[in-house]
UniProtKB/TrEMBL annotation:
Primary residence: membrane
Taxonomy of the source species: Eukaryota, Viridiplantae, Streptophyta, Embryophyta, Tracheophyta
UniProt entry keywords in alphabetical sequence: Membrane, Transmembrane, Transmembrane helix
Localization, UniProt: Membrane
GO MF annotation: an example: transmembrane transporter activity
Keyword Transmembrane helix attributed: yes
Highest taxon of the lineage: Eukaryota
Keyword Transmembrane helix recorded: yes
Mode of membrane association: Multi-pass membrane protein
Protein family per UniProt: Belongs to the nucleobase:cation symporter-2 (NCS2) (TC 2.A.40) family.
InterPro entries reported in the protein's UniProt record: NCS2
Entry GO CC: membrane
Protein name: Nucleobase-ascorbate transporter 2
TM spans (from-to): 38-58, 91-110, 122-145, 157-175, 181-199, 211-230, 279-298, 360-378, 384-403, 415-432, 454-473
C-alpha cells in the first residue's frame, strides 16, 4: 500500500471559511433574505426579553414597565445593528443586549438611596435614570478608544494564538445560559435541542425547489413546533400544580407581556425622565463597557470567519468599537436597561444556516425597529432559546478553536498559553459566580463600591480573563523567537486595510464614503 501524501494527511490553512452558501457581500433572493432576517429577529428576542424580565422586578417595575423596556431594547438594537452593518465593521452582526452590564446595574439597584424610595413606580424610574446616566458616561470609553484608533494600536499585541482562547470563550463562557436553563424544563428543552440538530444537520440535504429549507430555516421551524407543543401543555393544565419556578420556565403565559403590551408605543430618548449622574455608578459601568469591547472583538473575528470574509483589519475593528460606543450612548438615552455588544447567538446562526449575508442582518434590524407584534413572540419560553444556544454558542467557540490552524500546535509554549488561558477563563468566572451565589456579593467587597463593581465585572467575563492571560503570556514568554509559531506571518497581511486586496471588498464604507474617511 502506497504511503499517503502529506496533503492527504492534513488540511492546509485557509484565510476564508469554505462551504458557505452566501458570504458577506452575496445575497439570497429577497424572499429568502426576509425569512432569514425574521429568523435572526426571533433569535434576538431571547436576550431582549430575558434581561428586562430579570432586572425590572428588582427595580420595583410592573409588567407594563417590563414590556416597555423590552420594546425599547429591541428598537435600539435595530438602530445599532443598522449603524454597525452600514458604517461600523460592516460585518453581519446583530448588536444586542449584554449580560456583562448585569453586575454594575444590580449594584445600582441595591444603592441605599434608591432602596429607600417607598413607592415602587418611583423607585423604578429613579433607578432607570441612574442606569441611564452611568451608561451615557461609560459609553465615552468605547467612543474614545474606537474613533481615536487606540483600540487598533492595542490589537497589535494580539496574535492568532492569543485570539484562540478569547474567541472560544465568547461561546464556551456562556455555558450557564445553555443546558442549565434547558434542565429547568426538560420536556420542552430536550425536544427543542434534538429537533434543531436534526433539521439543521441530519436533514440538511432535504430540498424544496432547490432550497435546503430544513437547514436554512431549522430555527424558525423547530421553535414553531416546540412553542405550539409548549402552549398545548400549558392549555391542558399540565403545569397547574407544579412549582412556581417550573411554571415560569415552561408555561407560555407567564411572561405577562401579551396582556401588558400597548398596541403602538414608539420609544423615544429620555422617555423615563432626565438621567441622573453618579461617579461611582459610572466607574463601575466602565468595566462593563471594557468587557463588552473585548467580547465584541472576539465576536467580530468569529463573524468574519462565518461570513467567509478575511479577518477585519485593526482600523476596521476600531471603527466598529467606536460605533458600538455610540450604541451604548443610545442605550443610555433611550433607557434600554443594558449596554450593547455583539449578539453571540446570532453569530452562531450564520454558521448554522451557512448564510453570512450582510443584507440578511440589515433586514433583521428592520424587523427589530418596525415589527409591532413583539409581545406575541415574547411568550416563547426562554428554555426554547437555551436549547438553541447549546448549538449556536458551540459553533462560535469552535470558530475560535479553528484559529489553531495558523499556529504551531506542536510547540510546548503554545500549548501552555492556550491551555492556561482557556482553563483560567472558565475557572475564574465560575469562582466569582459561586462566591456571589453564597455570599450575595462578589469576592471584591470593600467600602469602595465602585472598585468592587469594577473588579467583579471584569472577572465575571470569561473572554476578558482569557484575553488578559493569553495576551500577557503571548507577549512575554519567548515572544521574540516564536513569531512563526504564534501565526504572525499569516496575521501580518490583515493588520492594515491595504495589506490584503480583499479588505476593500468586505469592509469599504457604502455610498463611496471612503473618499472622506480613508482607511489606514
Amino acid at each position: 500500500m502506497a504511503e499517503p501524501k502529506p496533503e492527504e494527511i492534513s488540511h492546509p490553512p485557509m484565510d476564508q471559511l469554505q462551504g458557505l452558501e452566501y458570504c458577506i457581500d452575496s445575497n439570497p433572493s429577497w424572499g429568502e433574505a426576509i425569512a432569514l432576517g425574521f429568523q435572526h429577529y426571533i433569535l434576538a428576542l431571547g436576550t431582549a426579553v430575558m434581561i428586562p424580565s430579570f432586572l425590572v422586578p428588582l427595580m420595583g417595575g410592573t409588567d407594563d414597565d417590563k414590556v416597555r423596556v423590552v420594546q425599547t431594547l429591541l428598537f435600539v438594537e435595530g438602530i445599532n445593528t443598522l449603524l454597525q452593518t452600514l458604517f461600523g465593521t460592516r460585518l453581519p452582526t446583530v448588536i444586542g443586549g449584554s449580560y456583562a452590564f448585569m453586575v454594575p446595574i444590580i449594584s445600582i439597584i441595591h444603592d441605599t438611596t434608591l432602596l429607600n424610595i417607598e413607592d415602587n413606580h418611583m423607585s423604578f424610574l429613579y433607578t432607570m435614570r441612574a442606569v441611564q446616566g452611568a451608561l451615557i458616561v461609560a459609553s465615552s470609553i468605547q467612543i474614545i478608544l474606537g474613533y481615536s484608533q487606540m483600540w487598533a494600536i492595542c490589537t497589535r499585541f494580539f496574535s492568532p494564538l492569543g485570539m484562540i482562547p478569547v474567541i472560544a470563550l465568547v461561546g464556551f463562557g456562556l455555558f450557564d445560559k445553555g443546558f442549565p436553563v434547558v434542565g429547568r424544563c426538560i420536556e420542552i428543552g430536550i425536544p427543542m435541542l434534538i429537533l434543531f440538530i436534526a433539521f439543521s444537520q441530519y436533514l440538511k440535504n432535504f430540498h424544496t425547489k432547490q432550497l435546503p429549507i430544513l437547514e436554512r430555516f431549522a430555527l424558525i421551524i423547530s421553535i414553531t413546533v416546540i412553542w405550539a407543543y409548549a402552549h398545548l401543555l400549558t392549555a391542558s393544565g399540565a403545569y397547574k400544580h407544579r412549582p412556581e419556578l417550573t411554571q415560569l420556565n415552561c408555561r407560555t403565559d407567564k411572561a405577562n407581556l401579551i396582556s401588558s403590551a400597548p398596541w403602538i408605543k414608539i420609544p423615544y430618548p429620555l422617555q423615563w425622565g432626565a438621567p441622573t449622574f453618579d461617579a461611582g455608578h459610572a466607574f463601575g459601568m466602565m468595566a462593563a463597557v471594557l468587557v463588552s469591547l473585548i467580547e465584541s472583538t472576539g465576536s467580530y473575528k468569529a463573524a468574519a470567519r462565518l461570513a467567509s470574509a478575511t479577518p477585519p483589519p485593526a482600523h476596521i475593528l476600531s471603527r466598529g468599537i467606536g460605533w458600538q460606543g455610540i450604541g451604548i450612548l443610545l442605550d443610555g438615552l433611550f433607557g434600554t436597561l443594558t449596554g450593547s455588544t455583539v449578539s453571540v447567538e446570532n453569530v452562531g446562526l450564520l454558521g448554522s444556516t451557512r448564510v453570512g449575508s450582510r443584507r440578511v442582518i440589515q433586514i433583521s434590524a428592520g424587523f427589530m425597529i418596525f415589527f409591532s407584534i413583539l409581545a406575541l413572540f415574547a411568550s416563547i419560553p426562554f428554555t426554547i432559546f437555551a436549547a438553541v444556544y447549546c448549538v449556536l454558542f458551540g459553533i462560535v467557540a469552535s470558530v475560535g478553536l479553528s484559529f489553531m490552524q495558523f499556529t504551531n500546535m506542536n510547540s510546548m509554549r503554545n500549548l501552555f498559553i492556550i491551555g492556561v488561558a482557556l482553563f483560567l477563563g472558565l475557572s475564574v468566572p465560575e469562582y466569582y459566580r459561586e462566591y456571589t451565589a453564597k455570599a450575595l456579593h462578589g469576592p471584591a467587597h470593600t467600602r469602595a463600591v465602585w472598585f468592587n463593581d469594577f473588579l467583579n465585572t471584569i472577572f465575571f467575563s470569561s473572554p476578558t480573563v482569557a484575553l488578559i492571560v493569553a495576551v500577557l503570556l503571548d507577549n512575554t514568554l519567548d515572544y521574540k523567537d516564536s513569531a512563526r509559531d504564534r501565526g504572525m506571518p499569516w496575521w501580518a497581511n490583515f493588520r492594515t486595510f491595504k495589506g490584503d486586496s480583499r479588505s476593500e471588498e468586505f469592509y469599504s464604507l457604502p455610498f463611496n464614503l471612503n473618499r472622506f474617511f480613508p482607511p489606514s
